[in-house]
Amino acid sequence: MFSKACEYGIKASIYIALSSYDGNRVSLKEIAKEIDSPEAFTAKILQALVRDQIINSVKGAYGGFEIPKEAISSIKLSQIVNSIDGDSIYHGCGLGLNVCDENHPCPVHDQFATIRNELKRMLESTNLEQLALDIKSGASFLKI
Fold first, then answer.
1. Which residues span the membrane (predicted)?
2. Rounded to whole angstroms, what are the CA distances from 101 to 94, 98, 131?
3. What does pTM read for this prediction?
4. What are the pLDDT digits (tens) for 111-139?
5. What is the crossing angle of helices 28-35 and 39-51, to 10°?
6. Residues 66-71: contacts with CB within 8 Å, 24+ apart?
7. What is the pLDDT of residues 4-45, one digit of tens each?
8. What whole-number distance in Å separates Cα of residue 92 and Cα of residue 90?
9. pLDDT digit string (tens) for 57-94?
10. Cα–Cα distance between 122 and 2 in angstroms, integer?
């Protein structure tokens, strides 16, 4: 459903949020290890998230990546997905056909539209704080 880069971006954002709650910045190396992603690939993903002001990058000996605590609750999953994959998940045919719309629907057009709309609702209503707190409480997990 999401690209591999987007999956890593979501995992990295959650991990950074968890560390930021504890007042810590995390290094590229630490993030890549935690989400089981190659460092160079992780760096490109983090650059996109920094560019779109989802995470902060601090340079220097005590630098790393962080999210201000007060911002964690306002970052929606949809922002992370848009930063990495754009909005293509909300468009296009469920079967990958070039021509699929209301006038020329594919066999799964209506069912896929329903699923796509529900996915959009979930991404726009779920924030990093919810995900981080679920992990912190043990209600869900981020380990691979």
1. none
2. 11, 10, 34
3. 0.90
4. 999 999 999 999 999 999 999 999 988 88
5. 110
6. 66/16, 66/19, 66/20, 66/24, 66/25, 66/26, 67/13, 67/16, 67/17, 67/20, 67/128, 68/20, 69/20, 69/21
7. 999 999 999 999 999 999 999 999 999 999 999 999 999 999
8. 7
9. 999 888 999 999 999 999 999 999 999 999 888 888 88
10. 14
3-state secondary structure at position 93: coil
Task: For 23-86, list the strands marked E by DSSP.
Answer: 56-58, 64-66
Buried-exposed string 53-68: b where 16+ CB fall within 10 A, e elsewhere: ebbbeeeeeeebbbbe
**Angle at CA 2, nearest 5°, toward 58 and 17?**
30
The token duo for 93 is 């045919």
Domains of the chain (ranges; CATH) run 4-137 (1.10.10.10)
